[in-house]
Amino acid sequence: MAVTSARTPNAPRPRGAARREALLEAVLRIVAEVGPDAVTHRRVAEEAQLPLASTTYWFDSKEHLLTAALELAADRDTARLLAQAAESDCRGADALDAAVATIIDSCGTELAANRSSLTATYALLLEAARRPALREIAGRWTEVYLLTLGQLLERAGSSRPREDAELLLAAADGLLIGQLASGGAADLQPRLRRLAEALVNGR
Description:
mainly alpha, single chain
């Protein structure tokens, strides 16, 4: 999931590509705090503590800001997923644990510490229902998850790895959204592990 970071007061102003990334992290913080509708060039510049001209230089519209912010979150998480997959060659029960870890690692084991990141991510994913450019990024991001989870579930013994991956990911999203809405922070790992085992064993 997306990772947002707080801007440190009086910190040196970033330059070049780092400035663009700082602006996008500001977008993610705004989305997490008040939602996508609140994103404007001026508000993003203020949140990032950068000149307004910085936002208009890098981004020509609100849609561009939102799309680039989701792409940043997706690229970061995709890199983590692919690196994790490249290092893993486990099978059986270990592959089941790895499948669950693939999801849990994206949001951290402590929901409270990642609430802002998750809120921003799900808000932008919901916004994708109205914005085709966001939908395309969300689709690519989801596909990486399904491929990675599918490979692990197949190694664990699943006869329908793609379908099981879809169900496991959907369940994780539902549980996380429920916790965000309720303010809860229960440990999801045992629940997802139980579901993954039931899917693979056909129960």
